[in-house]
From TrEMBL:
<keyword id="KW-0808">Transferase</keyword>
<dbReference type="Pfam" id="PF00583">
    <property type="entry name" value="Acetyltransf_1"/>
</dbReference>
<protein>
    <submittedName>
        <fullName>GNAT family N-acetyltransferase</fullName>
    </submittedName>
</protein>
<dbReference type="InterPro" id="IPR016181">
    <property type="entry name" value="Acyl_CoA_acyltransferase"/>
</dbReference>
<dbReference type="GO" id="GO:0016747">
    <property type="term" value="F:acyltransferase activity, transferring groups other than amino-acyl groups"/>
</dbReference>
<feature type="domain" description="N-acetyltransferase">
    <location>
        <begin position="1"/>
        <end position="178"/>
    </location>
</feature>
<dbReference type="InterPro" id="IPR000182">
    <property type="entry name" value="GNAT_dom"/>
</dbReference>
């Protein structure tokens, strides 16, 4: 039977939860906001760890933010990255949050196909209600998207299983976040992260749902990933 804990009461679960693995390639952990996502010094009560007989099998991470606000009238085009910046700003300013942003749900390969991700999302919804928050929004990563297909064309095919999972739980499409996650690095760094030496132009790398755009003269590779904003009714 699954048991759900959080880092507010069980901080020692952070490392084993992170060791379960990561969505996408190693390079996704190299973005400027990646450290904010993994530190969990902000709202550890919304970093959930799901255990089966005491062993972590999944994690779900979310952060509370003040949204909407006068300077934040819409969900951000920069998706995941902007949500983490908003949470850090609100934490520093002591600003009261009104919305929960779910950043990720990750299930260990050995535990997939059992509905664990759905249980994690339901628990986040319940905790958002108990915290007095009015909304739960998610910059959903369309994990099945071919890297060279546009996000608009891909959504038109309605082919993504993770997006459909959110819809089955009652979530509603809000907008595309075309720049949800950005990672930049030198060509040497990209080779270290992916095992691929980038050439000028677009290169598909393992774990990416978009290509890396490289410029050898500038010694620069840039990855920009789209996500899709969904809202779960509370």
């Amino acid at each position: 039977m699954l048991r759900i804990e959080d880092l507010a009461t069980r901080p020692e679960l952070r490392v084993p939860a992170l060791q379960l693995g990561f969505v996408g390639g190693e390079f996704l952990g190299q973005g400027l906001t990646a450290g904010l996502a993994s530190s969990r010094r902000i709202a550890p009560e919304f970093f959930l760890v799901l255990l089966d007989d005491g062993v972590p099998v999944a994690r779900a991470a979310a952060i509370p933010v003040a949204f909407p606000a006068p300077e934040r009238p819409e969900l951000p085009d920069h998706g995941w990255d902007s949500a983490l910046v908003w949470a850090a700003e609100d934490h520093l300013d002591g600003r009261e949050p009104t919305t929960l942003v779910a950043l990720e749900v990750y299930v260990a390969e050995s535990a997939r196909g059992q509905g664990i991700a759905a249980q994690a999302l339901v628990e986040l919804k319940n905790r958002a209600r108990r915290a007095g928050l009015s909304r739960l929004v998610v910059p959903v990563r369309p994990t099945g998207k071919p890297p060279l297909e546009s996000i608009v064309d891909y959504l038109g095919r309605r082919a993504d299983p993770w997006l459909r999972s959110h819809e089955r739980l009652g979530a509603e499409f809000r907008k595309i976040a075309p720049f949800a996650m950005t990672v930049t690095g030198t060509l040497a760094q990209w080779e270290q992260w992916t095992g691929i030496r980038l050439e000028d132009g677009h290169t598909v790398v393992p774990g990416g749902i978009a290509p890396v755009l490289a410029a050898t003269e500038q010694d620069l590779g840039v990855y920009v990933e789209p996500n899709v904003w969904y809202e779960h009714p509370l």
